[in-house]
């Protein structure tokens, strides 16, 4: 009995050592959940678990470096904390990796503790299963409810249509019967009167020609007004939102991700036109963002596969090979559909409004729209574009619309440019335009002169 107990204890000790050794080999002696947070905060710009981005995929990296380079986790600690120092020491495997991945230097992470690195490696070895998304379940339930409701709605519609057709048939039958009764009840005297009735338009016109001329005159005026109104709205496309060759949601980029408008439309602040950003601007971010992972927001009717496919269109346009992480030189032009397009005879300078008029326009808009305030000057003309999945023309962009804005927007005389340029005209303008206690609007400084916009 004693001998058996001794062997039993030895067996337990051996199993414990084996398990601890195994855990150490496969990098699971850390906290995978905390490692996931650290991985997303520090690594996702250049790495993914299951595919190459800028650097190699990191799933199973502990076992891979052991197999390829014969190194252990201590080597990975040195590589992550300061790979430059490791390469400079002459480490063969470190320099092989550097050469293999186009001599792209990895960022150093001296701020990560040994425990942090162990947690990250534990995550790459055994990533925790994703938590069930309650929102997706709710979406599935709603979709199922909609699918069940669809046949019921269709049945109800059919019943209504059949009922209406039956009622219409009944009415026609009643009218026919009434007509027969009227014919049977007509006397000879009524038949004689019917023969004396006016039977042609000419006779009616001769009898009521004054009324006819008046009606024709009214119709002519209405027709002229209709033609004039139609002409005035040529080129006014408020609400126009065409489909683009690559789907780009401003709600995701400017709304959800809070990307500043001028990061992409940089020339709006310094040039006349806002310009369409080149595809290389998109690649500043999408070089490392190759798939859509923002599951918290998806437009109705679109899924992850749809968004991933649009990112692939960016790669095709720029000639980017995501696997090799390099440009192939084979580019494809993107034929964007223009939405906002001023006529050639209209001069409009974005920089003048975005820089000199920024605060004045924001203040004026918020004063006129207290329940719909804006925080960026772009929204005054283009609407709340950070809420649009598909960009649309938010305003009329007519001459009257511009003039109304110039007549109601107060000039910011504390603006450095205005303060210096109109230094000797302030008092004169206040006397000349005494409305609202001497406040100066854009029209007071030439904002409605023809030559300012037409040249």
UniProtKB/TrEMBL annotation:
Q: Where are the transmembrane segments?
A: 159-176, 214-236
Domain called Cytochrome c: residue spans: 30-128
Indicate whether Glycoprotein appears among the record's keywords: no
This protein's UniProt keywords: Heme, Iron, Membrane, Metal-binding, Signal, Transmembrane, Transmembrane helix
Q: Which Gene3D superfamilies match?
A: Cytochrome c-like domain, Cytochrome C3
Where does the source fall among the domains of life?
Bacteria
The record ties this protein, via InterPro entries, to: Cyt_c-like_dom, Cyt_c-like_dom_sf, Multihaem_cyt_sf
Please give the Pfam families that the UniProt record associates with this protein: Cytochrom_C (PF00034)
Q: Where is the signal peptide?
A: 1-25
Q: Which PROSITE patterns match?
A: CYTC (PS51007)
What's the protein called, per UniProt?
Answer: Cytochrome c2
Please name the source species.
Chryseobacterium camelliae
């Amino acid at each position: 009995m004693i001998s058996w107990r001794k062997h039993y204890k030895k067996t337990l000790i051996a199993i414990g050592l084996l398990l601890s050794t195994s855990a150490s080999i496969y990098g699971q002696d850390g906290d995978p959940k905390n490692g996931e947070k650290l991985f997303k905060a520090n690594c996702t710009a250049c790495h993914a678990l299951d595919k190459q981005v800028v650097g190699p995929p990191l799933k199973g990296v502990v076992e891979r470096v052991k197999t390829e380079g014969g190194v252990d986790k201590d080597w990975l600690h040195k590589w992550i904390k300061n790979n430059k120092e490791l390469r400079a020491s002459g480490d063969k495997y470190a320099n092989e990796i550097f050469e293999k991945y186009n001599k792209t230097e990895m960022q150093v992470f001296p701020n990560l503790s040994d425990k942090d690195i162990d947690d990250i490696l534990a995550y790459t070895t055994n990533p925790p299963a994703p938590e069930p998304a309650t929102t997706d379940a709710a979406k599935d339930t709603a979709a199922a409810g909609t699918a069940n409701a669809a046949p019921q709605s269709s049945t109800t519609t059919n019943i209504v249509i059949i009922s209406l057709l039956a009622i219409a048939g009944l009415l026609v039958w009643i009218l026919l019967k009434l007509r027969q009764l009227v014919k049977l009840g007509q006397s000879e005297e009524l038949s004689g009167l019917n023969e004396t009735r006016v039977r042609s338009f000419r006779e009616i016109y001769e009898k009521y020609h004054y009324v006819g001329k008046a009606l024709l005159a009214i119709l002519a005026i209405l027709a002229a007004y209709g033609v004039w109104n139609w002409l005035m709205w040529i080129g006014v496309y408020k609400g126009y939102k065409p489909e683009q060759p690559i789907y780009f949601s401003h709600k995701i980029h400017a709304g959800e991700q809070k990307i500043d408008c001028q990061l992409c439309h940089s020339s709006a602040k310094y040039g006349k036109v806002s310009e369409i950003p080149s595809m290389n601007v998109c690649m500043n971010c999408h070089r490392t963002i190759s798939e859509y992972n923002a599951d918290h927001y998806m437009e109705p009717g679109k899924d992850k596969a749809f968004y991933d496919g649009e990112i692939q269109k960016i790669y095709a346009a720029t000639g980017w090979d995501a696997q090799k992480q390099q440009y192939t030189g084979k580019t494809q032009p993107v034929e964007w559909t223009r939405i906002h397009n001023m006529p050639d005879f209209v001069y409009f300078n974005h920089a003048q409004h975005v820089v000199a008029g920024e605060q004045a326009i924001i203040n004026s808009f918020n004063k006129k729209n207290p329940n719909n305030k804006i925080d960026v000057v772009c929204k005054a003309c283009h609407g709340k574009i950070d809420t649009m999945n598909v960009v649309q023309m938010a305003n009329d962009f007519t001459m009257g619309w511009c003039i109304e804005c110039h007549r109601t927007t107060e000039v910011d005389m504390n603006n450095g440019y205005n303060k210096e340029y109109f230094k000797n005209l302030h008092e004169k303008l206040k006397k000349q335009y005494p409305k609202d206690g001497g406040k100066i609007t854009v029209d007071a400084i030439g904002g409605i002169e023809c030559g300012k916009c037409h040249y």
